[in-house]
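User
New here, help please:
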Amino acid sequence: MDLLARQGRGAHVVGHGDGGLVAMLAAGRRPDLVRSLTLIQPAAFLAAAGHPAVEAMLHRARNSVGVPESVTPEQYPRASTEGLGMITPDATPQRLRAVATSMRERPA
């Protein structure tokens, strides 16, 4: 990476979810090595703490015990978007398969 810095070039850094935090830390530590930074849904809510919408989401997350077993993949997209003021996506077979997988993951 130091060669990139000496040549005046940098890497394109991409981070998704928790990886977004890693990408931000890396870019902050060595900005001379970063040509561009792309963050996709970075788990960086504390950076916006104090904003009413973020505070409300953090409060819900702190008091959450995960997805109740009674919630189906068909119900989950609505439950996870309406509270944030987002539009519920269409329930395509691919999306429902992804939702079912996501529901089994550890909460962030």
Observations:
- The longest strand covers residues 34-40.
